Amino acid sequence: MIEIKQLTKIFEGERAVDDVSLTVHKGSIFGLLGSNGAGKTTLLKTVAGIYRADRGQVLLEGQPIYEHPGSKQRMIFLADQPYFFAQTSIKQMAVFYRAMYPNWDEQRFQQLAQAFKTIPLKRKLHRLSKGMQRQASLWLALSCKPDVLILDEPIDGLDPVMRRQVKNLLFQEVADRELTVIISSHNLREIEDMCDHVGIMHQGRLLIEKELDDLKAASHKIQIAFRDPRHEQAISGLLEILHKEERGSVGTYIIKGTVERITEVIQAYQPYVFDVLPMTLEEIFIYEMGDAGYDVQPLLL
Ligand SMILES: Nc1ncnc2c1ncn2[C@@H]1O[C@H](COP(=O)(O)OP(=O)(O)OP(=O)(O)O)[C@@H](O)[C@H]1O
Q: Is 146 in the pocket of ligand 1 (CB under 6 A)?
């Protein structure tokens, strides 16, 4: 378990991360979203023990990460720009990782050659494309068998086939040995596919942090055609309507509450049309955050 407690990181008098508290459970995948400059990379680097917090702390299984080299060996941070030593191949980088990370698993490294077969073992990494370099850094990271993998927009630059491959590898590690993953991305669909918890950052602050299932269960998109316009007024007194759009006689409503409660209230008026529609994570964020007083639309892609 990772506990982030009232974390603040200041650069040149500006708070890049401002009083963020968050718990990431072992074996979960946490997705971090936010606009450019929101503080995601700074938060991730502080969690990884690369930056020292100005206030607050980060604990891995109760141990402060920055002060414990042993904790840092249990986690891997993959930056959005992969970094390798000059003139090295993946084989040579593997020698370095083997020396650095006590959990390095040579057999896993060999197995993963199949998954990352586009990367030649002896070719200099700096000559590979950006996407291939990202693949190489994921290959090395997974071979270290880390307890925590922190990924700063790593999947965004991969082609669709490799994206699926990497997601499957991560799911497998989470299921088999409770790997904890923290991933930042601008791609909401990616986060929705992968993560069980999500958070949105803006101007250094964590605006919202919730379990995806809770978010999905908290509000619903319903299409309704009432028999009598007065019925609509009646339900708005009984349910919390966050948003409404009308097309002809059919209205699409975003309503807070459980689907059972919403169904019970609306069905009592026997509408002509009553359909519960799926909501995307983007819609959920827009309405949830709008309800909390934030215009979140510009923060999301
Ligand atoms: N090393 C640094 N020195 C000074 N300021 C920094 C440094 N790193 C980040 N910042 C500032 O901290 C703020 C947050 O930056 P950060 O890179 O954490 O945002 P981000 O959410 O990852 O953005 P993006 O989505 O664009 O990658 C920005 O205002 C940035 O200019």
A: no
With cut-offs at 50, 70 and 90, classify the pLDDT of residue 297: low
Q: Is 169 helix (H, G, I), strand (E, B) or coil?
A: helix
With a 6 Å cutoff on the Cβ, whether 38 touches ligand 1 is yes
For residue 29, name the pLDDT band (cuts at 50, 70, 90): very high
> Can you point out the beta strands (E) in the chain?
2-11, 14-24, 29-34, 55-60, 63-64, 75-78, 148-152, 180-184, 197-202, 205-211, 219-225, 240-247, 250-256, 273-277
Residue 285 placed within a domain: yes
Distance 36 CA to ligand 1 centre (A): 8
| Check: complex ipTM more than 0.95 | yes
Ligand 1 near 185 CB (within 6 A):
no
Same domain for 259 and 197, yes or no, is: no
Q: Are 123 and 168 in contact (CB under 8 A)?
A: no
Same domain for 157 and 255, yes or no, is no
Whether residue 214 is contained in a domain is answered as: no
Same domain as 104, residue 6? yes
Three-state DSSP class for 202?
A: strand
pTM of the model: 0.85
| Token couple for 10 | 């200041």
Structural domain of 277: 226-292
Count CB neighbours of 227 within 10 A. Answer: 10
Minimum-distance ligand 1 atom for the alpha carbon of 35: 25
Q: Chain-centre distance of CA 58, in angstroms?
A: 18
Ligand 1 atom, smallest distance to 43 CA = 18
- The verdict on the CB of residue 34 being under 6 Å from ligand 1 is yes
